[in-house]
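Supplementary notes (optional reading)

For those who missed the lab, this is the record we used. Protein: 3-oxoacid CoA-transferase subunit B. Length: 218 residues.
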Amino acid sequence: MALSREQMAMRVARELQDGFYVNLGIGIPTLVANYVPDGMEVMLQSENGLLGMGAFPTEEEVDADMINAGKQTVTTIPGASIFSSAESFGMIRGGHVDLTVLGAFEVDVSGNIASWMIPGKLVKGMGGAMDLVAGADNIIVTMTHASKSGESKLLESCSLPLTGAGCITRVLTDLAWLEVEDGAFILKERAPGVSVEEIREKTAGRLIVPDHVPEMQF
């Protein structure tokens, strides 16, 4: 059974470490804010100029002026600060973000990512993604394994305009956790109830499958 958006966010949250500065992209990545482990101090950064985001607000907590880069209302944690987007991008470009979590349209076996443009379709555009993939060494991509029409998003070579080249080492889809290394996707974990065969069928790029691939536990 494919992972829900919430389960994907929970799995990514396991990669957080105490003291990390983390940027969460638009879409599934933003949900990670709801699953920061208890007792762990993580500073979530948004490129519109906010450091120290908390979980999404309840109806009583909503402040229409407190938003993330995707224009979603957010909360803040003690010690949060608000500053200009210029300073925020200075943090990103200066390599001060420990982990970046991004969505994508495609990822390929060379670690290339396409996330900002589909010719002929109206999408939100680049945003801060190009700066994030250039300024971060530790990036996790979250996306569905295949499109709604069943086409694989894990490719031998990206077909869409690239956001960044050779920068992706880890991918979480709704079917699997994979690492990108030596021109291949390496299957590390599979979603509960999802077979290795299904993952093979829906992966267009070269896939390496170890002898034992554990199921994710939730």
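If you only remember one thing from this example: The helical segments are 5-13, 85-93, 129-135, 196-201.
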